[in-house]
Structures are given as C-alpha cells and as structure tokens.
Amino acid sequence: MTGKTVYLETFGCQMNELDSELVAADLSRLGYTFTLESDRADVVLYNTCSVREQAEQKVWSRIGELAKRKQTQPELVVGVLGCMAERDGIGLLDRMPAVDLLCGPAELDKLPGLLDNAVRTKMALGAEDNADGTSRDREGAGLPLVSARQVALQGDASRRSGTLAAAGDRLEMLDLSRAVSAIEHNAQRSAYVRITRGCNKFCTYCVVPHTRGAEVHRPPEHIIEECQRLADAGVIEITLLGQTVNHYRYEGASAVSIEGVLQPQKGRTYKGSHHRDAFAGEGTTTFADLLYQIHERVPSVQRLRFVTSYPRDFGNDVLEVIRDCPRLCRYLHVPAQSGSDRVLKMMNRGYTVGEYDEFIGRAREHLHQPEIGRPLMISGDIIVGFPTETDEDFAGTIELLERSRYKSCFIFKYSPRPGTVAFDKIADDVPDAVKRQRNNELLAVQTWMSDEVSREQIGRTFGVLVEGVSKKARRAEGLTHGQIRLANAVSLTVGGGSPEQSSTEADACETIQLSGRTDGDQIVLFDAPASEVDQLTGSIVTVRIDSADRLSLFGTLTPA
Ligand code: 5AD
Ligand code: SF4
After folding, report:
1. 459: Cα separation from own chain's centroid
2. What domains are defined for the chain?
3. How close is the Cα of 243 to the center of ligand 2, in Å?
4. Is the minimum distance from the CB of 422 to ligand 2 under 6 angstroms?
5. Which atom of ligand 2 is nearest to the CA of 200?
6. CA nearest to 544, candidates 534, 531, 557
7. Is 38 exposed, middle or buried (0-12, 13-18, 19+ CB in 10 A)?
8. Which of 77, 142, 461, 538 has the lowest tally of Cβ within 10 angstroms?
9. Ligand 1 mean position, distance from CA 408 (Å)
10. Is the minimum distance from the CB of 430 to ligand 2 under 6 angstroms?
11. What is the pLDDT of residue 149?
C-alpha cells in the first residue's frame, strides 16, 4: 500500500538474500518505501530460515520484541516470510499472536496482495485489535470476529505436478520482473541469479525439500535474459543459485517472459566436451550448456560462479566448460556432510566417501592450475553429531577434511528439524557436549587447512574484484563506507583532516587498505591511494600476494 514504510530483515542463506531482493523490488514498484531502522517502520517483515533451530530462535526473539511494541503501536503489521512460515505454518500464528502475515518461500509472488490486505483490513477494523488479530470493536458490537491475518503457504500441494507448474510460472514472473533500477542506484557489481528452485534430494536431516518444494529448473532463456539485464546495469559478477546446481537440466519449450513469449534458443550446446552427458538430447540444456551459454552470450559478466554443487552427478562436461571459459570462476562449494559411509547412508546422501574423494580429485585434475595463476578453491559443509555418529565415524570426517584441503568449511552441529525423516525416525542421541567437542576439533583442523591453502598463494598474482575500504581500515578510521566516499568526494585526506585542511598533495600520498576477492573467493587486502577508492571499487585489479593468514591474503597492487 502506497506510503507505507517497510523494514525487511533476512536470515539464512543466499537464496533468502535473493528472495528478499526480489520482494523489495516488487514492493518498491508498488509504492512502499524501505527503512533500515525497524523502529521507523509501519510494516516489519522477517525473511526466515529453518535449516537449524538456532536460526529460528533468533526470529522468535525478534517477534517477541515486536509483540511488546504492538502494545503501543497496534497498527504495526508483522510478516514472517520464508522457510519458517512454511515449516511452522498456522502453528506459528497460534504461538505468536503478534504475527499478521505468513508467506512461504514458494508463494512470495503473492506477498504484495497479502500485505495490502493486511494493511487495509487493519485500517478497516481499527487499530483496537485483540492480540490474535481479531477486532475488539467488532467484538464489542457483537459482530462476528474478522481476522486481519493473511496466509499463503504451499502446504501439501508443494510436490504435486499440476500445482508445481502453475506455481513455477507465478514465481518465474517474480524473478523476471527484477528491477534493475534499484541496482543501478546502488552501483551493485555482484548479483545472484536463481537457476533452480526447491530440492528433490530429501537428505534425512534437511527441511529444504519440505519448505521450498520440488526441484524446478528455470528456462535457460530467462536466466540468460536476467544475466544480460544485470550486466547492462553494471553487474560484473554473478553467482548462480540452486540447492544442487549440477542437476540443472531444461528440456526445451517456449516460455513466458515479461515481454511476451520467448522462443528457446536451439541446441547451442557446449561442444568442447568429450564427455557430454549421454542422456542430454537435442533441445536439452544441461548445466554445462547453461554455463557455456551465459559465458558466451553475456561476456561483460567478468565472473560467473555457482553454489551449491552436489558431489554426485557432476560430469566432466561441467569441469571442462569451467576450464575452457576464462570468466568461469575456479571455485566449487561441495558439501560432504560426513566422512563416514555409514552416516552418509543414514543421511540419504547417495554417495560414499570414496565417491566424494573421486570427485574432488577429478575436479582438481581438471581445474587446479596454479602455474597459470588459477588454483582451484573448494569449500565444504560438514554436520557433526548426526544421530548415532561414533568416534570412529567422526575420525573419518577429520580425515576427509584433511584430504579435501578446503579453503573454508562451514561446520554445523546436527539440529533435529521437525518434519524431516531423521527427526521422526532417529533419536538425537549424540549429547550436545560431544557435538560441541567435535565441532571445535573440526574447526581446529580447518583453521590449519585454511592457513595452509592461504600460504600457498604467496607469490602468485590474482585478479581481485574490489569491494571497497577494508573493515579494518574502516574501524581504524572510525568511518563508515559512506563517510569515506563522502571524504573522497570533498578531497578529504582519509587520515582524519577536516574539509578546510584538505590538500591535494596530502591526497596523493595517503593510502588506505582496500578489500576484494579472487575468482576462487579468497579475501585479498591491499593498500591503494585513498583518492582512488571510488574508482577502484567495483573493478577488477591485479594484486601480487606477499603474505597470508587463514582468513586473508595480503598483497601489493601491480599493473595488470
Ligand atoms: N542440522 C545441522 N546442519 C544442517 N544443514 C542442513 N540441515 C541441517 C540440520 N538439520 C547444513 C548442511 C547444509 C547446510 C546449508 O546446512 O551442512 O549443507
Ligand atoms: Fe537439503 Fe540435501 Fe537438498 Fe541440500 S541436497 S537442500 S542438504 S535436502
């Protein structure tokens, strides 16, 4: 509803960050404005994550705070979006009367309608609502209770093929309608593009197949069109998103775009491969084809990467495309989850430790080329304390971590999630103290590995996409990035002078630490002239690495 101010906070993964960006663009087009201060908002929306209980607890406590605020600001509209809304559904409304609106991740296209209804109904009912959203005025007048609460969840329909197609089309419009004007204003250089929604793997610990529904692949033309629009708006780095990106496969058919019907591009398949997937017929777009087509058709995207890869079904065709296309990043995020075959089986992961090792070896064989400045960087995810995990199973995980030589690894303590097979069928029998101990032990191993992988980069030269003034420099100067930009704009020396004291001579020699990333997603810190911060931010510069620690590489700006 025009004129209302929205505070939108995102929890969880990159997929949620993208969903929030699309929702914000959608609502902005309808006249809503956004604030970064929750206190100033008429509408508070939380885009939530259910993957672990901890993520949910944060949201519960936020909603608890809002419930108090509603006592003095009853007209406030509170919405829970995303996986928690879908997982907990009506139960969440029962537990949290302060919530006015629920919208699952596969229903986000309906959010503007729901929000409009929530705002209007509240206004019509008067602010004097009961805590459960029904109207006190109406209750007093003996009228039937009307609730302002709005709900859109996919529920049991999530995996039915008929509704799946319809839901896919609706959601497709949301991705396609992405407003690039907002991006232009932010001078955004990096963006996410979804290629697949949902997941069909049903790992026994995971809520995602239940909350995000069945796997649906977006038409390649839509993905390429979106990449092109982002590139036209100045984006130079795109990360393709999906729960299991390497399962991407699209059987050609015409599809709808916001401009009308699109014809599929016929059979421009990746021809470099000797290992082309046997069951990919003409008209089928495989993941390798998709990468190749984006690389060829949107060359102004300097960096193209993707997350998350599934360790099974990852063909050499994909590895060869990455090797042969210079703007495809040498970076893979491939969760192993465990180094024990017994545990992997209980997790329903569908591969063995041997198969995981085989894939990592094959990826390194194809892509690890440090001699041409292109080492392969791999990151992983591990769950410790999965039910029944023994010391011996855990020892296998430590060994896997040592063998895999990840640049970084996310380590999670198993969190039982209602609705999953593991929750229903296997007792959470590893004590929390043991989970914590194993978590710390793995962190120590990974710290060591990250340190080694970082130090291997010393002496190498990398293209670095500059993100801006480093956190350390910002803290040291007590400046926010906005202040530094302002400082540059008025030719201020960043060393702490005032506008009156500024001198061009001082500008010329003043340096400041900038941070950026390699195509393998390693953080690089280097000094640059303070006067060039704005010019360098968002561009790719060449940096020679002089030293390193486990988190960052430190280098010197060199001519390309
Ligand atoms: N408990 C702990 N970690 C989990 N993950 C997914 N579900 C759970 C759970 N129930 C982790 C996995 C996955 C990452 C996104 O979150 O490692 O790869
Ligand atoms: Fe969850 Fe497994 Fe799907 Fe990843 S592949 S989203 S862990 S079910």
Report:
1. 32
2. 5-155 (3.40.50.12160), 158-329 (3.30.750.210), 331-456 (3.30.750.200), 461-558 (no CATH)
3. 6
4. no
5. 3
6. 557
7. middle
8. 142
9. 16
10. no
11. 82
